[in-house]
Amino acid sequence: MENLLKELEPSINNSYNNMGIINDVKHEINLGTVEQAEEFARIEVSARERYVPIILGDSLDELIKLIDEVKPTRILEIGTAIGYSGSIMLLNSPDCILDTVELMPARRDEALVNFSKFGVLSRVNSFLGDAYELIPEIIKGNYYDIVFLDGPKSKYGQYLDMVENNIVAGGYVFCDNVHFRGMVMNGKRPPHKFRTIIVGMRCFLERIQNEPKYQSNVMSKGDGIAIIKVIK
Ligand SMILES: C[S@@+](CC[C@H](N)C(=O)[O-])C[C@H]1O[C@@H](n2cnc3c(N)ncnc32)[C@H](O)[C@@H]1O
Fold first, then answer.
1. May I ask the CATH class of domain 2-230?
2. For ligand 1, what atom is nearest to the CA of residue 47?
3. Strand partners, 113
4. Cα 3 to the center of its chain, rounded Å
């Protein structure tokens, strides 16, 4: 696990450096009470200051639009971080359970505090560890209306393979950061440091746009998002 964390840190720490993450949300999103909305703003600022990656406003808009449309009863999130997106997803889907997994213990602890703060903790199953190892056990016997892929960026294809039989008919996979700082679609040879992520993401996008069992919508919002419907 330590090696995995070391590998992750450079990308995590840099991932918001040039993005300016003020969450300028346009879609109507329920952020709870006035005090809770202020708390979300504080969490955003604190996340930015500490280089903790959380979803960008434009992507959040699309995620909540999807939630409003689907009215999910169960969501799987890979990459809890500090529970920012998880809390917002649950405030916007009152009948929904969230299964969410995070690798870093300190982030997971902070997420639990935040879930409690926003009154959604009782609807969260929070898992600590490497999603790649934990997902098969977590999803056993569960069916998801939405799977939110927001963990390790080089493995989206493998996670899609793992979860697609556990998505309900008409369900979706929502993937964040698919344009990874503009490096996925620029046609250039990726810098060595990000090669695995960029090459992996290019393959993933090609796959979801070409295989007939997927209907996908790839958008240049935030850091790039892909919304995939698995045809059953
Ligand atoms: C972009 S952040 C998630 C942000 C969160 N969804 C939000 O918007 O508030 C990605 C998170 O995935 C976690 N992560 C990375 N690799 C992981 C793995 N193999 N298993 C579980 N979590 C992982 C990172 O530690 C990080 O906190």
1. alpha beta
2. 9
3. none
4. 22
* 27, 32, 35, 40: CA torsion to nearest 10: -60
Q: What stretches of the chain show up as alpha helix (H) in DSSP?
A: 2-14, 34-49, 57-70, 84-91, 105-117, 131-139, 156-163, 195-210
Cα 167 to middle of ligand 1, angstroms: 21
- Distance separating alpha carbons of residues 90 and 112, to the nearest angstrom: 13
pLDDT of residue 185: 87
Residue carrying structure tokens 């991932």:
15
Q: 219 has which bridge partners?
A: 225
Task: Identify any residues that bridge with 228 across adjacent strands, giving them in sequence order.
Answer: 173, 216
Give the mean model confidence (pLDDT) for residues 87-110. Answer: 98
Q: Which of 195, 223, 147, 203 is nearest to 7 (CA)?
A: 195
- Looking at residue 11, its pLDDT comes to 34
Q: pLDDT band at residue 90, thresholds of 50, 70 and 90? A: very high
**Given the DSSP bridges, would you call strands 167-176 and 214-219 parallel, antiparallel or unpaired?**
unpaired
- Rounded to an integer, the average pLDDT of 51-74 is 95
Substitution site in 5, 112, 127, 150 for ligand 1 pocket (most atoms within 8 Å of beta carbon): 150
Residue ranges around ligand 1 (CB below 6 Å): 8, 53-55, 79, 81, 84-85, 101-104, 107, 130-132, 150-152
Q: Give the distance, in angstroms, between the CA of residue 198 and the centroid of all CA atoms in the same chain.
A: 17
51 Cα to the center of ligand 1, angstroms: 12
